[in-house]
TrEMBL record:
This is N-alpha-acetyltransferase 35, NatC auxiliary subunit. Residues 356-725 form the NAA35-like TPR repeats domain. Belongs to the MAK10 family. PANTHER family: GLUCOSE REPRESSIBLE PROTEIN MAK10, N-ALPHA-ACETYLTRANSFERASE 35, NATC AUXILIARY SUBUNIT. It holds the Pfam family Mak10. Residues 1-10 have a biased composition (Low complexity). Keywords: Cytoplasm.
């Protein structure tokens, strides 16, 4: 070791330790103990002994030895090996020679594993959660313990299946820790028969429970004919119930995972039935808590909110540091296992999310699929349900594993005649758009932060293909852009592909902007520019949507009898759907809020937060750089925003009264969305935002925006993306 240090020895150097091997062919060993001793005596805080080739850049990827946060081998609080832990009696089999205590401890192990599984789902590693259980690590030791063996076996099989789903979907978190098995024994011999083993144990306990409930049998006869779980007949029924609901939950949850993995959504209906059963068993598990607490010798000292078992007892057979040395790819983490009550709530939400996925109609209409994902993400689903959703949507490069994405696109273009057409399927632009749609569905299934970042990056690809389509259209057919009665199929398809790709580009841009609110990326001083940009994007989105609808209606007319001049009045006669009117509400809300904020900035000098770190133009680019690079929309820059903001006046905001216009549109939309509760809820939120902002606008106008006593703030009390003005006087 070569090192540089200005330190000098504080005392006589100790002799070389006997562990240094003699010199050999491999090189010469040198004793550095004197240097280390001298450095320890002389170095101050923040100083470092380092080699000549050491740099700060190298320090970024270095592991600091002897630092508990970075050195996984420094902790000596646990055992170095499983065998050492077993020899010390930490995981006895049976769990106790007292049969009643044995069943109590078995239930504690099952409950703690339940909490560990929920903690793993929330993003921690298997090695530090589920596989801190020594019984799971050495399954052969518990082969004689029927209950624990059957439970651990099906738990291991379920974990393996969940890892497979998440790995396939690739929706796991940034550090990829969820799917890392660290060489743990996830595949065991006989795991394929885990259900039959569990069913056998369940049937035995069920017979015992029926015997306990039977009034015709005496206690003596019950004990003789059926092998009891433990020795106290008065407690037998309570323990039978507590065990059965846990074993049945594990069985049904394994069925849910298995059924949802079936190709083309074939197992979704059956999975829903098992989800219902799982929720029922979770309810029974909660009911058993009171009984288990009453049999516990320990009063809850830590409080129910931190206990990982229903009884409140600490489980045996676990060691948190057992697998810490397997975590070499990452520094060790301090893992807080979820409380048992929190784990119950997690699985309830997980099952409700999975039930929503199972209820999906497998409709091949892309617009409906995108709407479903956007609605599903509003509930902030965790990693596992998002992975199941993605594997359902995209299988073997097809939607639901059944529909080619080129056929999905042809349906979106309202051109059923070309479904299955080989020439259309092999078209270069159609192939590229199919890949973009596939990637879009995968992106929408990621967590909110990843989703926004990836959507922003994908905008460049969508914008590029739109430009390429437009250039190809001009090259082949000239500048004509309107729908003509005598145009050929190729020209019509090219035009509709262009409009369709542009519409989805602006849809992605709008979602990119909206997700910024969910991630709290915008400060109040930036709301004005954000709502202005949203207003511009929504207008473009409506424009492209209307063009697509016109083209679709034109295709429908062509199928019927041809009439003279049928295309002349197509725009005038086309009834645009409610989705366009809903978008119009978003346009009015965005424009109204941006103009209100701009007028307040101008007349009351509020919502201006000059920063010493960056200018407003730099913040504009930080938020919208990805949109600007993709030229979405074209010719929109920071100076466009400044010009629009400079022209805003409170009198104009009152004159146009965007919020009042929204209230005129809402009643007709309520009738259109009468059968869609999610959209009705959205309308109610929009209506509340419009009403509160209309009242606030009237107050500001009456008092005067320049009144120094006027205080205006914006809160998201009624809608997650559109703010409400709150007016106060100091």
């Amino acid at each position: 070791m070569e090192a540089s240090s200005s330190s000098s020895p504080a005392g006589p150097a100790p002799g070389p330790p006997p562990s240094i091997p003699p010199s050999g062919d491999q090189g010469v060993w040198a004793d550095v103990s004197p240097l280390i001793a001298a450095a320890c005596a002389d170095l101050q805080d923040g100083e470092l002994v380092h080699g000549e080739n050491f740099s700060l850049f190298a320090a970024m990827s270095a592991l600091e030895i002897m630092d508990p946060k970075m050195d996984s081998g420094i902790e000596r609080s646990g055992y170095y090996s499983i065998d050492e832990a077993i020899e010390d009696g930490i995981a006895p089999v049976p769990l106790s020679l007292d049969r009643t205590l044995d069943i109590q401890r078995t239930l504690d192990v099952i409950d703690h594993l339940f909490s560990c599984e929920a903690t793993w789902h929330k993003g921690h590693t298997l090695a530090q959660t589920v596989f801190t259980c020594i019984y799971l690590m050495k399954m052969e030791r518990i082969s004689s313990h029927a209950v624990l063996n059957s439970f651990c076996r099906i738990l291991r099989a379920t974990c393996n299946s969940v890892i497979s789903v998440v790995s396939t979907a690739r929706t796991h978190e940034e550090e990829d820790l969820f799917t890392m098995s660290f060489g743990l024994p996830l595949n065991g011999e006989g795991d394929d028969k885990c259900l039959s083993v569990l069913n056998s144990v369940e049937e035995t306990i069920s017979r015992q429970l029926r015997a306990c409930k039977s009034q015709a049998l005496s206690k003596k006869k019950t004990l003789e004919e059926f092998e009891s779980l433990q020795d106290n007949p008065e407690l037998e029924e309570g323990y039978c119930r507590a065990l059965l609901c846990r074993l049945r939950f594990r069985k049904h949850f394994h069925h849910v995972v298995t059924c949802m993995r079936k190709p083309q959504g074939r197992g979704l209906d059956l999975a829903r039935k098992h989800v219902t059963s799982c929720l029922a068993e979770l309810s029974s598990m909660l009911k058993s808590q009171e009984f288990l607490k009453s049999q516990s010798d320990i009063t809850s000292q830590k409080g129910d909110e931190s206990c990982t078992t229903a009884s409140g007892c600490r489980p045996i057979g676990f060691d948190v540091s057992l697998n810490s040395r397997l975590l070499s790819p990452a520094p060790p983490r301090a893992v807080q296992i979820l409380a048992w009550s929190d784990a119950i709530r997690y699985f309830e939400k997980l099952l409700h999310d999975l039930d929503i996925i199972c209820a999906l109609s497998l409709d091949p209409v892309l617009e409906n699929v995108l709407h479903f994902i956007a609605q599903f993400q509003k509930s902030v689903p965790d990693l596992v349900p998002r992975a199941f959703l993605q594997t359902l949507l995209v299988q073997d490069g097809k939607l639901y594993g059944r529909d080619l994405f080129c056929d999905v696109i042809s349906r979106a273009l309202s051109l059923p005649d070309i479904i299955g057409d080989k020439e259309f399927q092999s078209n270069e632009f159609v192939v590229q758009l199919g890949q973009l749609v596939t990637n879009l569905l995968k992106i929408l299934c990621t967590n909110t932060a990843w989703q926004r970042r990836k959507l922003g990056k994908s905008l460049q690809d969508w914008s590029t293909i739109s430009i390429q389509l437009e250039l190809a259209l001009k090259r082949e057919f000239g500048e004509t852009r309107n729908v003509l009665a005598d145009e050929n199929m190729c020209m019509r398809v090219s035009k509709q592909l262009l409009v369709w790709s542009q519409e989805h580009t602006y849809w992605i841009a709008s979602r990119f902007l909206i997700l910024g609110f969910e991630l709290d990326l915008y400060s109040p001083s930036e709301y004005c520019m954000v709502y202005w940009y949203m207003h511009v994007v929504f207008i473009k989105l409506i424009e492209k949507m209307q063009l697509r609808i016109l083209a679709s209606n034109e295709n429908s007319r062509r199928k019927g009898k041809k009439k003279k001049d049928h295309s002349k009045d197509s725009v005038r006669d086309t009834p645009f759907p409610s989705s366009c009117l809903l978008l119009q509400c978003y346009v009015l809300l965005s424009e109204g809020l941006s103009m209100l904020l701009a007028a307040l900035r101008k007349e009351s000098k509020s919502f201006q937060s000059p920063s010493i770190f960056n200018t407003e133009q730099e913040r504009f680019m930080q938020h919208f750089d990805l949109l600007q690079k993709a030229q979405i929309p074209e010719c929109i820059t920071y100076y466009s925003f400044k010009e629009a903001a400079a022209q805003a006046h409170m009198a104009d905001v009152m004159k146009y009264n965007f919020f009042k216009e929204i209230q005129k549109i809402i009643p007709s939309l309520k009738g259109s969305f009468a059968s869609e509760p999610e959209k009705l809820a959205e309308l109610r939120q929009i209506e509340q935002v419009a009403e509160h902002n209309r009242i606030a606008l009237n107050i500001i106008n009456h008092v005067g925006a320049s009144d120094p006593k006027l205080r205006v703030s914006f809160e998201f009390t009624h809608h997650p993306h559109f703010a409400v003005a709150v007016v106060k006087r100091s």
